[in-house]
């Protein structure tokens, strides 16, 4: 659709498409309505942090497929894909960015400028089984405990004779 409107892309990255949609919509409709329209146009999963002028914006797809959390380290706000980042930095978790929410951060604090969630959520299961660190919390749910519960359920549904279950070493690290 953007190509039909004459937009040219430098890469094949989905992030570039997301930024082009946001840039176009915010440029035409202003900040709040631009975000609102862009979120309605974008399909798929995303959790983003974006700086516009002197403000930081954090936003998440309406289904909440990808996690996003924010907190404070000293006098600075931090936005991250998982809570363990704030733990490592010695920060204080404030809360998750809700599905479909856009939060604006400035020197004076933060405020929700848009909240347009879906009627349902659709979390990515790979966040719990593969992507996230076990000490992370996603939308109030501990990753480690979720893995334990999934393992118990798997053992009930598909029992096998095994001595021990082990991960592929360092496969989830980047």
Summarize the SSE layout with pairings.
Elements: H1 14-29, H2 31-41, E1 47-52, E2 55-60, E3 69-73, E4 76-80, H3 83-88, E5 92-96, E6 101-106, E7 109-115, H4 125-131, E8 137-138, E9 141-142, H5 143-157
Antiparallel strand pairs: 1-2, 2-6, 3-4, 3-5, 6-7, 8-9
Helix pairs in contact: 1-2
Your description of this structure?
The chain is of the alpha+beta class and 174 residues long. The chain has a domain at 44-119. It is built from 5 helices and 9 strands; from the N terminus they run H-H-E-E-E-E-H-E-E-E-H-E-E-H. The strands form 3 sheets. A 4-stranded antiparallel beta sheet has the order 1-2-6-7. Helix 1 packs across helix 2. The longest helix has 16 residues, at 14-29.
Write a concise keyword list for the protein shown above:
GATase_2_dom, 174 residues, globular, 9 strands, 5 helices, PRTase-like, Amidophosphoribosyltransferase, Ntn_hydrolases_N, four-stranded antiparallel sheet
Task: Compute the CA-based radius of gyration.
Answer: 19 Å
Strand order of the largest sheet: 1-2-6-7
Order of helices and strands: HHEEEEHEEEHEEH
What is the structural class? alpha+beta
**Helix coverage percent:** 25-40%
Q: How much β-strand is present in the residues? A: 25-35%
Gross morphology is globular
Q: What number is the mean pLDDT? A: 90
> What's the count of strands?
9
- What distance separates the N and C termini? 34 Å
Runs in which pLDDT lies below 50 for 5 or more consecutive residues are none
Q: Oligomeric state of the chains?
A: single chain
Contiguous helical run count: 5
* Largest sheet descriptor: 4 strands, antiparallel
